Amino acid sequence: MNKIIAILFLACSLVFISGFESKSIKSNSNLLKLVELNLQIHNSFDYGVGLPGYPTLAQTIEYGNGHCGLYVTYLAEEFKKKGYKAVVWDLHSGLSSSEQFLNHSVIETVIDDKIYTFDPTLGIYYENSVSELITNASISKNAVGTIKNEKLKMYATPYFWDNVKKTQIQTTLNYAKDNIITKVPYTVRGKDNFYSSPNDLEASLNLTGAEYTASKEGILPVEFTITFSKEVNVNRLYFEWFDLNNYPTEFSIYDNKNSKLISTYKGYVNEVGYENIWLNSSIKTNSLTFKFSKFKGQQRLLLRNLHLY
Q: Where would I find the H helices in the chain?
């Protein structure tokens, strides 16, 4: 599989970049190098829902499609291999509910003291920072490159950038191998609220995905606490729900050590089968509590995977 990836990357790098008309790219070898990487990732697989979680690039190529979060994850890793800082921005638009899927992810990096924004999902880049694009959405018209997928062009328009209402920044991206739950010993309180193996609480924490956690009927809210043997830094939480018809619509996560609410959701809609919760800043704690109050479908918690990064 590594040979296949290498061949794909080589083929992509040999493609004539006819869609790029920026004057700066012709005289900037460092920019050209990252533009080529952007195209390599863009051309490696099609846009789609993709595999759940954060599969490897090889797994996504084999599967055939992936979402914008995977595009930026893989490009960020390539940038870092070349010695460039990669800042991932999750962009949440304030568009109406009929356009609720208009959330997107891009990467900022610095080349020769200038900030650029790359969009591997679309295969384009901007000679501006994300902040500049949000502040002055009209400059998004100057995006460099050609967008082939007509359905995705909206993400490069002033209409989208002008409606970005919330952003989340992630400067370090980790794959499942860095899941805190698999690296640091822990204990769980609240296991009695769930059925026994193979549907016990451990089923959603063991990374296998072979089984699922199921709480007992009639217990509301469903609550459990994970306590680690030492303090850990948490940047992201990942939930893989049972399916699109059975999931929590109201839930909260608490940092017990610092006695504060980390995140809360009310009226939550499960659009793609999982949820990544990116924290605005890393928290240092040894104990997290999860509380699920309302559900769609079965009135209990059905959870395939819970990861912490």
A: 2-13, 23-27, 29-42, 57-63, 68-81, 130-135, 158-162, 180-183
What DSSP state is assigned to residue 216? Answer: P
Q: Which two tokens stand for residue 33?
A: 């190098």
- Residue from 246, 252, 243, 244 nearest 222 by CA: 252
Q: Which residues share a beta bridge with 222?
A: 292
Q: Which part of the chain is CATH 3.10.620?
A: 2-170
Distance CA 30, CA 81 (A): 14
What is the distance between the alpha carbons of residues 197 and 195, in angstroms, rounded to a whole number?
7
Q: Where are the beta strands (DSSP E) in 112-192?
A: 114-119, 124-126, 164-170, 186-189
Residues 6 or more apart from 56 whose CB is under 8 A from it? 175
Q: What is the mean pLDDT of each run of 10 residues along the chain (309 residues)?
A: 47 44 65 94 92 82 91 90 87 62 87 94 95 93 94 92 81 58 92 90 72 92 96 86 92 91 89 71 90 96 89
Q: Does domain 2-170 have CATH number 3.10.620?
A: yes
In angstroms, the CA 140 to CA 225 distance is 44
pLDDT recorded at residue 18: 42
CATH for 177-308?
Answer: 2.60.120.260
Q: What is the pLDDT of residue 176?
A: 46
